[in-house]
Amino acid sequence: MLQQTPVARVLPVWHEWMTRWPTPKALAAEPSGEAVRAWGRLGYPRRALRLHACATAITERHDGEVPSDHATLLALPGIGEYTAAAVASFAYGGRHAILDTNVRRVFARAVRAEEYPPTATSAAERRLAEALLPELGAALWGVAVMELGALVCTARAPRCESCPIAGVCAWRLAGKPAHAGPARKGQTYAGTDRQCRGRLLAVLRAAHGPVPKAALDVVWDDAVQRERALDGLVADGLAEVLEDGTYSLPA
Fold it and tell me: Quick check: 185 and 195 in contact, CB under 8 A?
């Protein structure tokens, strides 16, 4: 839930989710459409489908217990390098490099004297993160660097005066050189297919039964974009077309 979504938006949904589905087995026992419904407006709803598929795989392959082994975690649906490392480290105390946006920014500034990390995580960044991992307390280290980036070494207004590593930060010592790479562009949302998909999906989530096509047509004026977005929801498994032409969340 926290991937690309702020804590403030995640927390109430997470509490509701964990009350309803405290274990992978509990989530796997319900249709995937219920996971999409409970996901609410967190965005990127395919994450809900992947989480449901992951819970099903954990139930079927591991008797409902989340694996502690990094390689085993990676074999689960929807689990990538970041999530596998985070679970193995934070839940089980494993020694793994956890590279989220905040951690990458701290390393870029403190070690490489660069204002921002590359757009995509590079092999060099992974090698650096692994080289910096302490032998003991790697999980605590991971949390600490993540929080440092989230609260102090922020993207737009870093609080260097409050930073515990300011004295050795390569970027600060170099005079805080400006980012030399491509301009960083914020993501637009208004008027996009993402917004259209969100509107359509909100109608399906609010309904506890089939939704007629007319009820979907009224939420977005651009018919071409609306049909493209609706086809995309069906193709992604986030919606189903029933025999009578109505729509619903996946069963």
Answer: no
Q: Is 80 left (phi over 0), alpha (psi -120 to 50) or beta?
A: beta
Q: How far apart are alpha carbons 88 and 73 in whole angstroms?
A: 8
Contact call for residues 242 and 210 (beta carbons, < 8 A): yes
- Give yes or no for a contact between 95 and 138, defined as CB atoms under 8 angstroms apart: yes
**Do the bridges between strand 247-248 and strand 240-241 make them parallel or antiparallel, or are there none, so unpaired?**
antiparallel
Give the residue among 243, 247, 244 at the shortest CA–CA distance from 201. Answer: 247
Where do the domains of the chain lie? 7-66, 101-173, 193-248
74-111 pLDDT, tens per residue? 999 999 999 999 999 999 999 999 999 999 999 999 99
Q: What's the half-sphere exposure (Cβ side, CA atoms, 13 Å) at 62?
A: 18
Q: For residue range 123-146, what is the model confidence (pLDDT) as tens digits?
A: 999 999 999 999 999 999 999 999
CATH of domain 7-66: 1.10.340.30
CA 138 to chain centre: 22
pTM: 0.88
Q: Spelled out in words, what is the top-level CATH class assigned to the domain 101-173? A: mainly alpha
